[in-house]
Amino acid sequence: MRRHIIYLLLAMFVGCSMPVLAQSEDDYDESIRMPVRRLHPEREREKARKKLQQELDAKNKSQQPADDWEDASQSSGKKKKDNRRVVGTVPAAKSTADKSVLNDLLNKDYSLVQYVPTAPTRMVWRDDPVIESENELLMQLNKVPVQTGVVRYMPKGVSMSRTENAFYAYFTTDGARVEPLHLRVQYYADDPLQFNDIVFTIDGFDYRFRALSPQHGKGTGRMIWELCDQEASSADKDLVYALAHAHWVRMSLVGSDGTKHVKMLTETQIRDFYLVLQLFRMLGGRIG
């Protein structure tokens, strides 16, 4: 009896559950149906592909060329304002001016001018004008009285002492007449030279001066003195001019046995030659 009751209950349970299994899928709630639909992912991919295509079509349409816009606006009967700017154009006036400047630059002669340096030349006598004033020259020279009414003009810092080494130019005047220009060489040492010739190398060129009547004498102890005090002749004009306008001078006293005593003149000595020569010419002196 108990077994029959159990069978009856099972039959009632199965009969009640059958209608539930036959229920349509659409009757379920969305939250319940989604897990079932995910069994078909190709449907979701198709939706996503269509959406992406729509977005691309809209983007391409927004980037359509201006001519297409203009054609579209004309076809619709409305003229659309063109706000585009032309970049790189130049106003006509400015363009013409720039072209003129460019033509000027192109027409210029850019060829290099070759300057060939002139070779140094030997200085010769020139009658250059005296540009200094008499007072300017006198202020830089010594005026030494010789006798009544006669004065000697010579560089400052030198004397006619035979016991001093020196080389300079000088002249005397009584105010009415200017005596010839003198070149004076004073040699004082313990080594006799007995020089007769003097070679001046001036800016690379040699000028020779012949001592016609040099003087010799004995000094203190072993010292000796030699002296050449000679008027400048017409043959010495180039030498005198070169001494007064030189950049550098080397003086070589040539002894009787060929021995040389060499000395470079200072800038002061060269400047003194110039001052004496200019004053000599200003006062009316002439060489030769």
Written description of the protein model:
The protein is an alpha+beta fold. It is built from eight helices and ten strands. It has a six-stranded antiparallel β-sheet with strand order 1-2-3-4-8-7. Helix 7 packs across helix 8. It is rod-shaped and about 185 Å long. The model is unreliable at 19-23 (pLDDT under 50).
Task: List descriptors.
six-stranded antiparallel beta sheet, 10 strands, four-stranded antiparallel beta sheet, 22% strand, 8 helices, alpha+beta, 288 residues
Average predicted confidence as pLDDT: 82
Topology pattern, helix = H, strand = E: HHHHHHEEEEEEEEHEEH
Share of residues in helices: 25-40%
User: What is the count of DSSP helices, taking H or I runs of 4+ residues?
Assistant: 8
Secondary-structure class:
alpha+beta
How do the helices and strands line up, and which of them pair or pack?
Layout: H1 2-21, H2 30-37, H3 41-62, H4 66-75, H5 92-107, H6 134-138, E1 141-147, E2 150-155, E3 166-173, E4 182-189, E5 197-202, E6 205-210, E7 215-218, E8 224-231, H7 237-245, E9 249-254, E10 260-264, H8 267-282
Antiparallel strand pairs: 1-2, 2-3, 3-4, 4-8, 5-6, 5-9, 7-8, 9-10
